[in-house]
Amino acid sequence: MIGLLIVAHGTLGESLIECATYVLGGRPAKLLPLDIHDCSNTTEIVAVARAQLAELDTGDGVLVMADIYGATPCNMLCSLIEPGRIELVAGVNLPMLLKVLTYRHEPLPTLIERALQGGRDGTFHVTHCHG
């Protein structure tokens, strides 16, 4: 099973996990948040991230999902990328998280594509509602 780490500003990571837990009826295994409240101590944050990645990696790798490309939480994790083992995608949202939780048994390169697809395909311009 591919481990999942959400790195984001504030409590977004834990909030996304809470939403996924509600939708799925239980908290998924090997899924952790790294909620960033203060970006001043990057050395400490990277050390925490490194420990979380070790905890999450059961041999199939870890997909890190960041909230905003180019923002501090994403930038701090860039140094931990190991192609094929620790991969990073940015722009995490609930549809992306649900997609990767559904397909995390697939190989890491495939899961990255599923994550990007879920993030894109989960957004809509709503002009009317059914019901």
List the helices and strands and how they pair.
Elements: E1 3-9, H1 12-24, E2 31-36, H2 42-56, E3 62-66, H3 72-78, E4 86-90, H4 94-103, H5 108-121
Organism: Sulfuritortus calidifontis
Protein name: PTS system ascorbate-specific IIA component
Domain PTS EIIA type-4: 1-123
Explain briefly what this protein structure is.
This protein has 131 residues and is an alpha/beta fold. The protein is 45% helix and 18% strand. Helix 1 (12-24) links the parallel strand 1 and strand 2 (31-36).
How would you characterize the overall build of this protein?
InterPro entries: Bacterial_PTS_sugar_comp (IPR051471), PTS_EIIA_man-typ (IPR004701), PTS_EIIA_man-typ_sf (IPR036662). Residues 1-123 form the PTS EIIA type-4 domain. With 131 residues, the chain is of the alpha/beta class. It starts with a strand and ends in a 10-residue tail after the last helix. Helices cover 45% and strands 18% of the residues. α3 links the parallel β3 (62-66) and β4. A four-stranded parallel beta sheet has the order 2-1-3-4, with helices on both faces. It contains five helices and four strands, in the order βαβαβαβαα. The chain is globular, with a radius of gyration of 15 Å. α4 runs antiparallel to α5. It has one domain: 3-Layer(aba) Sandwich (Rossmann fold), CATH 3.40.50.510. The chain has helices spanning 12-24, 42-56, 72-78, 94-103, 108-121, and strands at 3-9, 31-36, 62-66, 86-90. The model has no long low-confidence stretch (mean pLDDT 95).
